[in-house]
Design a protein that fits this description.
seven-stranded antiparallel β-sheet; single chain; mainly beta; Jelly Rolls; 1 helix
Length: 524
Amino acid sequence: MTLRTGIAASYYDFLNQLEAALCSEGHAWGLLYTGAGNGTLTGLDGTTGGYRGDPATIAEAFTITALDANRFQVIGSVAGDLGLATAGLPFESERLRFQINAGSLSFVAGDRFTLNTSPPWTLIRRIGVRNPTLRTGNFSNLGNLFDGTVDTFGACPVANLPATAGIEMIGPTAVRAITLGVADAINRGVSAFELQSSVDGSTWTKVQGWTGVRWASTRARQTFVVTGNPTAARYWRVLFTAASGGTVLDCSELSFQTDLNADFELEERAQWIVRAPGLDGRKAIFIGAELYEDPARAAYNLNWYGFRFHNPLLGVRSQVNNSGLRNLPLRNGPFGYWLAINGQRVVIVAKIGTVYVSAYLGFGLPYEPPSDHEFPMLVGACGSNEGGTPDATDPNFRAFFDPGRYGLVAYYPDNVWRPHANRYQSSNDNGDNETQGKVYPSAMSTDGARAWLRENLDGSTPLLPLILQHLNVRHHWGEFDGCAWTTGFNTPSESRINRDSAIWLVFQNTFRTSPDNYFALRMD
């Protein structure tokens, strides 16, 4: 799988880096090797799991066969012969990028690496406003324009016109209508205004203007449709130039719409949606997030949703048959992260101080064939509280591989999302009748017996599949892709485990460091 590590300056910067990692290049997965040499295939910089695709990457299988100790023929199942790769030097093509590194035993003719690629993910939506400070203007009580009610209003003396009120979004989109409201006096409603856009927040362009606006009653709303096809922009504002006769201009509401039939408005909370192509490049696996900020509580979060079908007129949380919210609490400051990506899922691990938060988003490995289980999606993080923080210590603040109540949901063959919880209110509680889905061996005995799982008899560290099952429907769902349970004995967080020519990286369950609270993430 494609592995990325880095440092994010903030939770918002992390979203930007995640988007770039998912959508700017294709992803490689399924690396296997047979041969006499013990060298490795890595990223261009020598990092394990760093091999990757390119924007032109498609779903394809590659064989990389040694001609001698230093030269390898690269053949794609679709692209055909891509030329020779030389050990110790980067290999770059429009389909695949990697480097082969010599080991202590030389490669010989016939030694072979095989791997697969999948296309880049696709950005579907990036709209909305991060926080109220990005709603700007020179009205008094500016926030009243954006509170969704005509019972409150912002004001500006007519002598001080023109006045402005607008938004900065997390991404560009076209505004096709705006809604304005009047307060308690119709002669204080706006009579002339124009809609403006900007790509940088400094230079503004008029999109359309309106004059002669009249208000039939107090506390009313009017929607004004933009004609033509406006250009997408990140910054939008209304320039108010005249009132209906009063000495003060009042505005009780301002909202921006990209479609009059949508159930969301652009000045609302930011939302982000991507589509994963699947390993075959033909799937449509939708993953969405809402951004959540509460500076007073130091809550800066990405709240995740999964859904099988995407309706462009519905917000993330109102998509049909969505998974519900799974919370990944981050911070508004620097933190390290790891991303493990292929065409059907991404695993996220972030280190916030001494706490490791994680999320699993996308397909797992079901035990049934696609004909029986067509959409095997998992959405798991640290809980279901949208305002969760990484300093939490309650029993439900857990990792996806050992979830608390509502920390993990799985999509079953009968088209039902079912929650999985190994714990509920206390460390010795194994859940309740509503959350009878479990993840094993993390759920193995709530009396602490899983702590007896230690090293293998040969001293190596165990890697056990993380298996999902549900006790109510009596269904063995399947496993997480590229994740395994392991013990924390002699393997603290960020330890590496070498097993069967693969490297696994170990992480703990949030703040927990007892030996039974660890999992391993496959790095290639």
